[in-house]
Specification:
The structure holds 2 protein chains of 2 kinds. Chain A is mainly beta. Chain A is built from no helices and 11 strands. In chain A, a hairpin with a 2-residue loop joins strand 5 and strand 6. Chain B is mainly β. In chain B, strands 2, 5, 6, 10, 11 and 12 form a 6-stranded mixed β-sheet that branches. In chain B, strands 3-9-8-7 form a 4-stranded antiparallel β-sheet, with no helix packed on it. In chain B, strand 7 and strand 8 (about 65-70) form a beta hairpin. Chain B is globular, with a radius of gyration of 13 Å. The N and C termini of chain B lie far apart (about 40 Å). Classes of the chains: A mainly beta, B mainly beta.
Chain lengths: ~120, ~110
């Protein structure tokens, strides 16, 4: 089984619907992240969490919310999906800060299409 | 502000040929630099990283990268490309003492027989 698991892997929904993307990890890492990938833009950080009580906005948090239910679980929600939220979403974990050489471990991604 | 530029959106090389993917960064101090690879339908995997010491770093799958402070570059190289190297490659920078990774837009590598 993958160390970082995302569900669902693919989802098609309609404008205005609420969507939740779930992430669970078995690596025992405290730090978890949600990124969004768009062609030509690379990966952009949506939210990050250093532990269950510590959640922070990234560079593109508008229209998204998160919940850290446990050390191993970090969910991303779109309260009212819109077409420009169509993208590939990645969950990632790390065991130390990126600036001290920490490696990010990624899930396989959740492809979301909003019609 | 920190930024990462990968000038080539896509590159095509013949199998067995050498490869160099370019990466330039903007950062006020010594950066922490990474190369990740994304195979089709997969998440990103770390190829190599640099944060101090020898400026030529070795990674997995036969890749290496060289940090050149004077050019603000961290180019990725491989002497002989295999068809399985076809993927998208991302250069990234992390801030010293920080907690966020900034990614470049990526370079998609195509390998022709």
């Amino acid at each position: 089984d993958a160390d970082v698991t995302q569900t669902p892997r693919n989802r098609i929904t309609k404008t205005g619907k609420r969507i939740m993307l779930e992430c669970s990890q078995t690596k025992g890492h405290d730090r978890m992240y949600w990124y969004r990938q768009d062609p030509g833009l690379g990966l952009r950080l949506i939210y990050y969490s250093f532990d269950v009580k510590d959640i922070n906005k990234g560079e593109i948090s508008d229209g998204y919310s998160v919940s850290r239910q446990a050390q191993a679980k970090f969910s991303l929600s779109l309260e009212s999906a819109i077409p420009n939220q169509t993208a590939l979403y990645f969950c990632a974990t790390s065991d130390q800060g990126q600036g001290v050489g920490g490696e990010l471990f990624f899930g396989e991604g959740s492809r979301l299409t909003v019609l | 502000a920190q930024s990462v530029t990968q000038p080539d959106i896509h590159i095509t090389v013949s199998e067995g040929a050498s490869l160099e993917l370019r990466c330039n960064y903007s950062y006020g101090a010594t950066p922490y630099l990474f190369w990740y690879v994304q195979s089709p339908g997969q998440g990103l995997q770390l190829l190599l990283k640099y944060f101090s010491g020898d400026t030529l770093v070795q990674g997995i799958k036969g890749f290496e990268a060289e940090f050149k402070r004077s050019q603000s570059s961290f180019n990725l190289r491989k002497p002989s490309v295999h068809w399985s190297d076809a993927a998208e490659y991302f250069c990234a920078v992390g801030a010293a003492g920080g907690f966020k990774t900034i990614f470049g837009a990526g370079t998609r590598l195509f390998v022709k027989a």
